[in-house]
């Protein structure tokens, strides 16, 4: 056997190995891209158990504790049943962080003007020291779909003052013993 034949026989399988290696590399790259792309579908989970996902990013600064925000929201239980929504209350509703469930306030800190978000929280981040409202499924987490319509920087104090004035007016005209029922709204 000549030297030339020996050298060529060793490299006869090389093109096939290159094709196999390229194919394996292509599959690995596709899997990596799929994994990274799916990251936007996986919610970020905080230490408290809040699962937060940005559906459509907003712009500008995030909502701050001193801000008021006009939000559209839909609250659903684990089985997808709609339990409450801003639409049933006449459209976007005003919220401040100190007037909502702790889990809702934690989510608000991540929201920007115009953004759409979905977050799920365990009942322990919502019904603190109180039982869930009547009809809420046992042990079901709360899932909110939220769209931020407007953020009013520093608007929390103004909104709180307005709400106090409305409460005073209602107390003056309300019948003795009248009270609000708990309905699952994120506002406490």
Structure description:
The protein is of the alpha+beta class and 188 residues long. The protein has 2 domains: 3-37; 44-171, Chitinase A, domain 3 (Roll), CATH 3.10.50.40. It is built from 4 helices and 9 strands. Strands 1, 2, 4, 5, 6, 8 and 9 form a 7-stranded antiparallel β-sheet that branches. The termini are far apart.
Report the uncertain regions.
Answer: 177-182
Tally of domains: 2
Series of secondary-structure elements, N-terminal to C-terminal:
HHEEEEEEHEEEH
- Percent in helix: 25-40%
As a whole number of angstroms, the C-alpha radius of gyration is 27 Å
Under the CATH scheme, the architecture of the largest domain is Roll
Q: What name is given to the CATH topology of the largest domain?
A: Chitinase A, domain 3
Tally of contiguous helical segments: 4
CATH class of the largest domain: Alpha Beta
Category by helix and strand content? alpha+beta
Mean pLDDT: 83
User: Biggest sheet, open or closed, and with what strands and sense?
Assistant: 7 strands, antiparallel
Distance between the termini: 90 Å
Keyword list:
alpha+beta; two-stranded antiparallel sheet; Chitinase A, domain 3; 188 residues; single chain; 4 helices; 7-stranded antiparallel sheet; 9 strands
């Amino acid at each position: 056997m000549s030297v030339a034949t020996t050298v060529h026989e060793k490299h006869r399988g090389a093109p096939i190995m290159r094709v196999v290696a390229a194919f394996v590399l292509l599959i690995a790259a596709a899997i990596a891209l799929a994994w990274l792309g799916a990251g936007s579908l996986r919610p970020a989970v905080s230490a408290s158990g809040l699962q937060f996902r940005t559906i459509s990013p907003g712009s500008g600064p995030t909502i701050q504790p001193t801000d008021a925000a006009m939000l559209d929201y839909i609250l659903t239980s684990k089985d997808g049943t709609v339990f409450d929504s801003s639409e049933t209350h006449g459209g976007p509703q005003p919220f401040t962080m100190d007037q909502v469930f702790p889990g809702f306030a934690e989510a608000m800190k991540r929201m920007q003007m115009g953004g759409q978000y979905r977050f799920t929280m365990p009942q322990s981040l919502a019904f603190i020291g109180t039982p869930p409202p009547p009809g809420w499924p046992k042990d079901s987490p709360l899932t909110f779909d939220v769209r931020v319509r407007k953020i009013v920087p520093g608007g929390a104090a103004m909104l709180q003052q307005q709400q106090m004035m409305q409460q005073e007016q209602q107390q003056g005209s309300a019948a003795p013993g009248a009270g609000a029922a708990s309905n699952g709204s994120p506002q406490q």
